[in-house]
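Hi all, long-time lurker, first post. I run a small reading group and we've been trying to get comfortable going from sequence to structure in the token notation. Rather than ask abstract questions, I figured I'd post a concrete chain and ask someone more experienced to write out its structure so we can walk through it together at our next meeting. Sequence below, copied exactly:
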Amino acid sequence: MINATGFGAQTADLPLAEMTFQRRDMDDHDLLLDILYCGVCHSDIHSCRNEWGNTHFPLVPGHEIVGRVRSVGAKVRHFKVGDLAAVGCFVDACGQCQPCQEGEDHYCKGGITLTYGSPERKAPNILSQGGFSNNYVVDARYALQVPDNLDPKGVAPLLCAGITTYSPLRRWQVGPGMRVGVVGLGGLGHMAIKFARAFGAEVTLFTTSTAKADDALRLGANKVVLSTDKAAMRSTRGLDFILDTVSAKHDIDALLGTLRRAGTLCLVGLPDQPLNLMSRSVLSNKAVSGSIIGSIAETREMLNFCAEKGIVADIELIRPDQINEAFDRVVSGDVKYRFVIDMAG
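-- Answer (accepted) --
Happy to help. Here is the structure in token form:
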């Protein structure tokens, strides 16, 4: 067993605190990383506060990890000691089912092994613990090379916020000449704007806050619409695709009204309450869909695209002792646009 220290939740009603725990031993296919940076995702908060009702405590969260390779298994060929490596939302899959065989391992029928809170496939009696910690053991197949030309601090959120928005934009073939809506300007939304513009689309941001307009334009949006302004929503028409990143309960009917015939709205936020949908809203062959993270191959593609375009997340770097304050600020929307913890510092 490998000793580790981290910041985790003992129960849903207690703040995160420093704790010690053990990781599984390495095998010949694994890497041991010294964690440098870890992003803070809203799902970390949902998990630590048991807002989805499925958390196993104690829990060390964190699935946007960048670290330096300290040790390499004997059969690993594409990493060496000293390399920068990234780990995202899942760290294993069955490899045998149809989704895995088709390169969509994130939809593994046997269930993915999450970066935290899942039984380890290689040691089922141990629950995985996340990147709010000093080290991580991962099968090298689920680790990714960090591009040399990108700031590793800004790379960390790409492992969740980045791939979560990149994947559906690619799946629905967003490109030049398309009109795309992005709902919400947070950790996911700001990446969605960057990617949609990099793909050549015209981007409209829907937000409930007029204060976010200038920043949305800076990030690449062509237009900002206040979603609480009924007249502005009625006058916005003809969008080809909408990526909805909001993780709180909200009305999607008005958003569907801005789509063209046969347009698609894709949900990537994870509200902890049901969303209301009127059946008339999907007339004209409009579709409501959903997407979750992306495959390992697709994440590798995304990182290469980011290297080519110079894309990273806008972040605020914090110390580990600021994690609880950061959780509260994420809930209140007070971050531009992703907290990243300096775990090495």
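A couple of things your group might point at:
The radius of gyration is 20 Å.
The mean pLDDT is 95.
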